[in-house]
Design goal:
- This protein is an alpha/beta fold.
- The chain is built from 11 helices and 10 strands.
- A 5-stranded mixed beta sheet has the order 3-2-1-4-5, with helices on both faces. A 5-stranded mixed beta sheet has the order 8-7-6-9-10.
- Strand 7 and strand 8 form a beta hairpin.
- It binds 5'-O-[(R)-(carboxyoxy)(hydroxy)phosphoryl]adenosine and zinc ion.
- Zinc ion (ZN) binds near residues 113, 134 and 268.
């Protein structure tokens, strides 16, 4: 069973080939056009997807020495994401479906992230706690099978990646700010400034990061002259990063204890953060299994979309159910549970 997968929900265009649950190739193009605008510009994202999607599909097929006649199904991200960006991927997938008479499996992007840890680690067993932490999402899930999971917490306002990016902008760093905060934090003191750890004591698994952003804004206005001196940036970055990582870590392990689950899987762009990785991995010595997928499966990628489609088919879903080209893309998740 060979699946061609397409992902275009935000600012990554990606195409992958999955053969019986194994990723054969996964090409990702990250749009850099947004840097100069300080954030993703939806119209530019759609145009960049249009420019790249055919070329990436050809590159992906060539890399895996596969031709379209070998493909049994197409998987495509249908929700959630930027409307125009999703339309590009879905329309391209529908075109291929008509031309080659192959079914299309629409996939929820967040579900793709949830199961992305299973790509690298086939030994991973259910149940596990999944932390999806990216520029658009910060959620915790209790995952019981490939078709059953439950949202147990989510951010009430900004996502963690959004907080990294917005705070980086306040500090004077460019977009995306998460990797730059990570870089500067390496030479900074994380205990230098005490920023708020919002909702850390609440008895639920929800998050909130907009208070941190506001607090950093006022703190900078009061204590620094703009532009902030290069020498002052590392301590600020390390302290902000520590505040975000502390909340993510404490809430995730509290969820694992509450549901008596020993495996934790982290996905989404923020899982690239070196401090977050270090602190989660350390917990393995306390009997937890920590799965941090390879970066190519953490950031937005088509491999996770194709992998989940492949698993859905393996677990009872019929390929014949997927000849309906009338499915619509949606900027909000309709199927996420
Ligand atoms: O999953 P992703 O590629 O796209 C979304 O679905 O949002 O995540 C992008 C986010 C951005 O907010 C970016 O700043 C953040 O992930 N990010 C990081 C790091 N690398 C990427 N945040 C903190 N530390 C990093 N090393
Ligand atoms: Zn994503």
């Amino acid at each position: 069973m060979k699946i061609l997968a397409i992902e275009s929900s935000c600012d990554e265009t990606s195409v992958a080939i999955i053969d019986n649950n194994v990723v054969i190739s996964n090409v990702i193009y990250t749009q850099d056009i947004h840097t100069k605008y300080g954030g993703v510009v939806p119209e530019l994202a759609s145009r960049a997807h249009i420019d790249k999607i055919s070329l990436l599909t050809k590159e992906c097929l060539d890399l895996s020495k596969t031709s379209m006649s070998d493909i049994d199904a197409i998987a495509v991200t249908s929700e959630p994401g930027l409307m125009g960006a999703l339309i590009v991927g879905a329309s391209f997938a529908k075109g291929l479906s008509i031309k080659y008479d192959i079914p299309i499996i629409p996939i929820n992007h967040i579900e793709g992230h949830i199961y992305s840890g299973c790509i690298d680690d086939p030994t991973l067993e259910f149940p596990f706690i999944s932390l999806v932490v990216s520029g658009g999402h910060t959620s915790l899930f209790l995952v019981e099978s490939y078709s059953k999971y439950r949202t147990i917490g989510m951010t009430k306002d900004d996502a963690a990646g959004e907080a990294f990016d917005k705070i980086a902008k306040l500090i004077g760093l460019s977009y995306p700010g998460g990797p730059l905060i990570d870089k500067y934090a390496k030479s900074g003191n994380p205990a230098k400034y005490d920023f708020p750890r919002s909702m850390i004591h609440s008895d639920n698994f929800d998050f909130s990061f907009s208070g941190l952003k506001t607090s950093v804004r006022y703190f900078i206005q009061k204590n620094f002259e703009m532009p902030i001196k290069e020498s002052e940036i590392p301590d600020l970055c390390a302290s902000v990063q520590q505040a975000i990582v502390d909340v993510l870590k404490i809430k995730t392990f509290r969820a694992a204890n509450n549901y008596d689950v020993k495996s934790i899987v982290i996905g989404g762009g923020v899982s690239a953060n070196s401090q977050l990785r270090k602190e989660f991995i350390k917990e393995a010595q306390n009997g937890y299994k920590i799965v941090l997928p390879e970066m190519e499966y953490c950031i937005d990628n088509a491999a996770m979309i194709g992998f989940l489609a492949s698993k859905k088919l393996q677990h009872n879903e019929e390929l014949n159910n997927y000849y309906n080209l009338e499915f619509r893309v949606s900027s909000r998740p309709s199927r996420a549970k």
